[in-house]
Design a protein that fits this description.
five-stranded mixed β-sheet; alpha+beta; Alpha-Beta Plaits
Length: 413
């Protein structure tokens, strides 16, 4: 997984790219982004550094064979530095790198590790004489070049490490130049090689930072696009008056639930809810009050349907539909009765209703196990038929319709 994507991008503002950097070299971001950059890449680089340390420890210990080959019995002093100082310190560094806390100080940790290798190797050089000294100086040069380039040091820490290395090597090797003029060549070679390494480190870090910034900006654009799509989806799927699902979204969900119920062979129910004498309500109290009434009814129905899979939608005008997966007809009818009672208990005055002084609803309930030759339109038609029955029987009540052939199935569902 891309580590950049593990963080939120709230800290990115609408600014041109140059404003993200705090220096002309483009090696440091503004404070908030810099902290994020270091946190992300320290988390990634800590594992990488631990792997490098394992390889380094193995090579460092095995190099003792080369000590013996080059120095013979005189290797004892070199081994003292290698095995009593260098190897234990490297092992300690590996152990310390296991802790997450080291991520905050990872650059200092890497710098200290490289300088420890440099100092111990320079210490070994002081015990070596003759032609063998060139092998150790060469290994020292290879060590600093590798340390600067493959450890993912930031440029400022690499520059600090290189400066200390040049000073330390000059201090240790300059006394040898009179006896061995070739050491002077190594000192100049050190300066040139380290300078080239610093150029490589600078180029690498600047490239990594640019890629990091590009990923952040792309992620931000993707998040903006996702939010825009979600907003668009809300506008498309939600009824603007009631803030519940609209007819379009109802059709989508009913199709999905129908297919699921068909695969799993369980019942799906639907309620059709209609506000009684709503035209008379509008005529007497006005459309603004009518809109308020629809909103309150929609909210109350939504409060009754508490299961995650239930869907309340505005079917059209003053009519609502409720999709109820995995309910049989009796369960659906009990919910329908609860809807009737709950709406009347809102005590919304209705001066022109012949069944109650308050706003009431009629509810039709239908349930079906999806089997051939029926489809979801048949279920909706059944609920609509039940609603018609409830209204023709006096309103403010419920009615239910069941396909005769499915009665036993629904009762056992």
């Amino acid at each position: 997984m891309d580590p950049v994507k593990e963080e939120n991008d709230d800290i990115i503002n609408d600014r041109i790219e140059g404003d993200f950097y705090s220096n002309a070299l483009h090696l440091r971001f503004n404070k908030a982004l810099e902290n994020r950059y270091r946190r992300i890449y320290a988390r990634r680089d800590r594992r990488y550094v631990r792997s490098l340390l394992v390889v380094l420890i193995v090579c460092y210990i095995l190099y003792g064979v080369v000590d013996w080959f080059l120095l013979g019995e005189a290797a004892s002093n070199v081994w003292m530095v290698r095995y009593l100082v260098g190897a234990p310190v490297l092992c300690m560094l590996w152990f310390v790198a296991r802790g997450r806390w080291v991520e905050e100080y990872l650059q200092i940790f890497i710098t200290a590790g490289i300088l420890m290798l440099v100092i111990t190797t320079l210490w070994m050089v002081t015990f070596v004489g003759g032609v063998a000294v060139h092998a150790y100086i060469s290994s020292l040069l290879a060590m600093i070049m590798g340390g600067l380039t493959i450890t993912r040091l930031h440029f400022n820490y690499a520059a600090l490490t290189a400066s200390i290395y040049i000073l330390a090597s000059a201090f240790a090797l300059l006394p040898m130049t009179e006896a061995n003029p070739l050491v002077t060549y190594y000192l100049w070679l050190n300066v040139i090689a380290v300078s080239l390494c610093l150029v490589a480190v600078y180029t690498y870090e600047r490239t990594i930072r640019r890629e990091f910034l590009q990923k952040i900006l792309i992620q931000r654009k993707n998040n903006e696009l996702r939010k825009a799509n979600e907003k668009l989806k809300t506008l498309v799927d939600v009824d603007p008056l009631t803030n519940i699902a609209n007819r379009r979204y109802l059709d989508q969900v009913l199709d999905q639930e129908w297919r699921r119920a068909k695969r799993r062979n369980y019942s799906i129910a639907i309620l059709m809810v209609d506000i009684d004498f709503f035209k008379a309500y509008n005529d007497s109290l006005g459309h603004l009050n009518g809109d308020s009434c629809i909103q309150r009814v929609a909210t109350r129905i939504g409060q009754i349907m508490r299961r995650p899979g239930d869907l309340v939608a505005r079917y059209g005008g003053e009519e609502f539909a409720v999709v109820l997966p995995a309910l049989n007809i009796d369960e659906a009818n009990r919910l329908a009765e609860s809807v009737c009672d709950a709406i009347e208990s809102l005590l919304i005055e209705h001066p022109n209703s012949s069944v109650s002084p308050y706003v009431t609803v009629s509810v039709g309930a239908a349930a079906m196990i999806p089997v051939e030759p029926y489809n979801k339109q048949d279920l909706v038609a059944m609920a609509d038929e039940a609603l018609y029955q409830a209204k023709s029987q006096g309103r403010n009540q419920t009615a239910k319709v069941v396909i005769p052939q499915q009665v036993s199935l629904l009762d056992s569902d």
